[in-house]
Amino acid sequence: MAKDEHSDGGASPESRRWTRPRQIVALSLTVCLLALALWDLALRGGHPIASSNYRPNWLAITALFLVAEIFVIHLQFRREAHSFSLAEIPLVIGIFALSPFGLIAARVVGSGLALVVHRRQSGIKLLFNVSKFTLETAVAIGVFKLITDGGTSGEVPTWGAATAATLAATALSTVLIVMAISISEGAWQRGTIRELLGLGTYTTMVTTSLALLAVTLLEHEPWQLAAMLVPVAGIFVANRAYVREREKHESLEFLYDSSRLLHQTPALESAVEGLLYRAREAFRADLAFLFYQPSGDAELLHTAIGPLGMAASLQPAGAALAAMCRSLQAADEAIELGDDALSLLATVADGTPLTDAIAVTLQGEDRHMGTLVLANRVGQVSPFDASDRRLLATLGAHVAVAFENGRLEQSLAELRALQQQLSHQATHDPLTGLANRKLFTDHLRVALSESDRGVGVVFIDLDDFKAVNDSLGHAAGDAMLVAVAERLRTTIGSHNLAARFGGDEFAVLLRAGHHDVERLTAQLYDAISQPISLGRDQVRPRASLGVTIAEPGVLDPAAVIRDADTAMYRAKSQGKACVEIFEPAMHEAAMARHTLRIDLERAIHRQEFELLYQPIVHMHSGAPAGVEALVRWRHPTRGVLPPAAFLALAEESNLITEISRIVVEQACRESVQYDLGFVSVNLSARDVEDRHLPTLVRDILHSTGLPPERMVLEITESAMLNDADKAAHALEQLKDVGVRLALDDFGTGFSSLSYLQHLPFDLLKIAKPFVDDLRLDHNQTVFPRAIIELAHTLGLTVVAEGIEHPEQIDVLQELGCELGQGFYIARPMEAAALLDWQAE
Ligand code: C2E
Ligand code: CA
Ligand code: CA
């Protein structure tokens, strides 16, 4: 009974029961005050309350109160115990033998002592009970006095008055107890007051009659008092039998309730919770746990109800508790748990320390289905006993039957479905429903570890997807992604996996050998390229595919994905819309690209770029007309790099606009400094898209003092492919600055001369391959001639590039080409060197 010693201070169940201790203290003090008032009004005086010839001493009556309070019958109301005592007997005897003060003192000392010593009550509870004894006794005395005004024993009115007095005391005590229970339960217990009053009236009448008999015997034949022990014991036994019956009835009611709960509540999770709540009440336990073992080798789950309510609902219980439940399976009845089990259980009980617990294994037909545990018995009256364990065993059997019916399995399946849905959201792309990068990587990791013939990964990047988004809108872009996703899914079949990594990047995991991977990749390429209708437009998606086949033994999914990505990158740089298979050299190239990129960033800060100028001359006279600025990168370790070595990378990583700014600025400055005629500067596609370019050029021209008409900006056809309207607009703005525009590398792209009509070009540069042709024989001049003639009709000046031989000059002169450049005329050179060249 150690727990009672600190029960009022700590967080033990005992003190928690008095959840509203202040209200109980207030109630007790009010009761005390009432007792005092009564005392003052009617109870003063040292004479016995009623006159009687027999005077048993005060100690004897006090002892009787003590005994009566020890042999009580406890009646359980919800989680509170109420006790019936035979205290009416000493009370009635006392009325006839003691002074009001003496009787109250005997009651308080006798009953109080029983509470302290026998029932180990203390604190608020003791205060309440002692106050109650005081008032109860005072009321009994008051009522008796009011009716008899000091009658003698043995007379009928005195008997009536004594009965009225004890009934009043019982009624008062009942009301006070129900008030206290109501306060601690937080709700008015109307049913309890009715039941208690009924029972109280009956026992009080019986015991009062016995007490009056005793009084009479004491007056006349005290030795015959012994005969009364039999009826007194009889009443005691009868009362206790009644209480047992009542408890049995309540247990049955509880079992009936709980099986109804288990079988009728549609969601079994809530049925289990409801059951645990009911069980907690029925067993007067503070905590209830249900461990559930789903079929198969699934994890043990637990639902826990603590003093604060639900602590967990069908949550994984962990290995330690699973082991504990297994260790209980040997017992085939409900058992009391030991300290180890108690401290284990505390871990799933909101941290509430466990003091005592009983448990039963839920035994299904062919397997253990779990364990039901009730812990921390409420109230100090009685610990869990054999009848509790019997009740728990019966309950356990009921629960096991309910589980066996598969209801919990079914609702667990629903729970799992929900969890699956949640994890689906975390691992899938919401737009296309494909796996995301994380899930893909997870699957790839497993596939790599299991494969014995290799795993194929295809990295897919749509070509020019940005153009679709820009020109047809995002909805069309999304529709295209969804369509492509669907094509991937249907092409690869169900045992392979397609994922969207984001944007227009996809990846496919092929659990197949070399041959099948190549076949499937070709099918993927074809499937993606089928036309798609987006609203009124028909679009043919294009994609660059990179493939890698991880040999058995390769285990790092990130490395495999990176290889496929590298191969895809190669496909892009091979002109897009193709498939490339990974080779280790590609990886080295990718690594080199990576370091180069870092170097490039640094080069911008350190001004590592310089310009060479290639003279452009008048074809008829050979006189210098201007220069083309050609960028070089003086790399700190690799020497001077040509544009081909770094411009593509600069475009990709958006460093190109920075470089262009440097080039434009330097070209303007040096062209003023060395008086180079006009200076032609190359722009990239990205520059044309840059909204700030016209202002930038205007500002640089202004600050360097180069007249706008001495600047030519060269743009290749491919720079205008993405969005012709946008490009036209950008060119117009550059024209507004006052510079001239040249269409570079004409003939290598897809454009026709007709579209030149709508673009504000001033010059057209014939690409080197056409100029090369000019020296073979005159039949090859057909195409260059047509270009030059058409250019002239459009009012464009023609520049021939890559002149390497003198005979080319003759032909070009004949064809009427105005300007020319090439190694035969002059190689690109530093600005300072141009002066010498001109002087030659
Ligand atoms: P491009 O605009 O067609 O420039 C002409 C290229 O042909 C230059 O190569 C030049 O050195 C070379 N070349 C000139 N005459 C002959 C010849 O007779 N025979 C041969 N085989 N080649 C000749 P470079 O300097 O390597 O430039 C390559 C490309 O890089 C340029 O082609 C241009 O598109 C781009 N580029 C150069 N500088 C810049 C720049 O500052 N910005 C941008 N965006 N691109 C640039
Ligand atoms: Ca050029
Ligand atoms: Ca060119």
Q: Globular, elongated, flat, extended or rod-shaped: what is the shape?
A: elongated
Structural class: alpha/beta
Rg from Cα: 51 Å
Q: Helical amount among residues, as a percent range?
A: 40-55%
What is the CA–CA distance across the termini? 119 Å
Strand order of the main beta sheet, please? 16-17-19-20-21-22-23-24
Major sheet summary line: 8 strands, mixed, barrel
Average pLDDT works out at: 84
Instruction: Report the strand count.
Output: 24
Ions and ligands: ligand C2E, calcium ion
The fraction of residues assigned to DSSP E strands is 15-25%
Outline the low-pLDDT stretches: 1-19
Count of helical regions: 30
Describe this structure in words.
- This protein is an alpha/beta fold and 840 residues long.
- It is 55% helix and 17% strand.
- It is built from 30 helices and 24 strands.
- The chain has an eight-stranded mixed β-barrel with strand order 16-17-19-20-21-22-23-24, surrounded by five helices. A six-stranded antiparallel beta sheet has the order 5-4-3-8-7-6, with helices on both faces. A five-stranded mixed beta sheet has the order 10-11-9-14-15, sandwiched between helices.
- Helix 2 packs parallel to helix 6 (123-148), helix 4 crosses helix 8 and helix 22 packs parallel to helix 24 (693-704).
- It is elongated, with a radius of gyration of 51 Å.
- Ligand C2E binds at residues 614, 629-631, 642-644, 647, 663, 682-684, 714, 744-745, 801-804, 821-823, 828.
